[in-house]
Amino acid sequence: MTDASSPTPAPADRTRSALGQAFVGLSGTGRAVVALLVLLALVVGTAVGATLVARPDAATPSDGSVEAGFARDMQAHHAQAVELAVLVRDRSDDETLRAIALDILTIQQQQIGQMAAWLRLWGLPAASPDGPMAWMGGETGHAHAADADGAGGLSTMPGWVQAADMAALRDADGTAAERLFLSLMIDHHVGGVEMARYAAEHARHPEVTRLAQGIVDSQSREQVVLQDLLDARGGPLTG
Predict the structure, then answer these.
(1) Region for residue 159 given its phi and psi (left: phi exceeds 0; alpha: psi -120 to 50; beta: otherwise)
(2) All residues at 6 or more sequence positions from 80 whose CB lies less than 8 Å from its CB, including other chains
(3) Which of 27, 70, 90, 108 is deepest in the core (most CB within 10 A)?
(4) If we measure between CA atoms, which residue out of 233, 226, 235 comes closest to residue 103?
(5) What is the model's pTM?
(6) What pLDDT is attached to residue 9?
(7) Mapped to the 3 state alphabet, what secondary structure does the chain carry?
(8) Domains of the chain, earliest start first
(9) Separation CA 133–CA 154 (nearest Å)
(10) Dihedral Cα 43, 49, 52, 58, nearest 10 deg
């Protein structure tokens, strides 16, 4: 559903974090909601993160570590999921779907705060000098994705929803919006699981691997629920 005629985005500012790049791309309403949620998440996440990181059995990750890359890029990935959830809640009257969307945005904004707190407590910058996705390594096909397009690599993150599809969701309503949201969120979860599984298998900090594995488990289960809801509505939109 992407638009091949969409203009090429301007080169990304490498000094801006992946979360910051994602935030710039949000709609006005989405930006305001996500900003509020992230602010609340930072308050909660800092307390949680401080408790988790201040443990003598875990070495402080380096700037180029899997832990740092995961914490940076999953924040951006989660922020887009939050916007998707906000958009569908504004466009659907289905209470089940609205409840699922609320659960997604609540959990993921809390995790954004937790990961931001990790970076601060590790004394690491929010942005990586290598750009998004370099931490996953060449074997994943996403390494150094920041060099692949003008969007700073965000658009090549696994499961990242492209601008044309986000615009289509903003323009949709009712069942059409629900079907589009479900299709996009399923793919988004597939990508999130890919990122989290890599972190769970390659990171060494126990709290990072614990969160990463939790994301793998929860989003894998959610994919089944989302697919059932999509099937009940006739499947993905066509044309």
Answers:
(1) left
(2) 22, 160, 161, 188
(3) 70
(4) 226
(5) 0.77
(6) 40
(7) CCCCCCCCCCCCCCCCCHHHHHHHCCCHHHHHHHHHHHHHHHHHHHHHHHHHHCCCCCCCCCCCCHHHHHHHHHHHHHHHHHHHHHHHHCCCCCHHHHHHHHHHHHHHHHHHHHHHHHHHHHCCCCCCCCCCCHHHCHHHCCCCHHHCCCCCCHHHCCCCCCHHHHHHHHHCCHHHHHHHHHHHHHHHHHHHHHHHHHHHHHCCCHHHHHHHHHHHHHHHHHHHHHHHHHHHCCCCCCC
(8) 18-232 (1.20.1260.10)
(9) 8
(10) -160
161 alpha-carbon distance from chain centroid: 10
Tokens of 53: 């990181």
**Interatomic CA distance for residues 181 and 38, integer angstroms:** 21
In this structure, what token pair is assigned to residue 219?
A: 């989003």
Positions in the chain whose pLDDT score sits under 70:
1-58, 138-152, 239
Q: Is 153 left (phi over 0), alpha (psi -120 to 50) or beta?
A: left
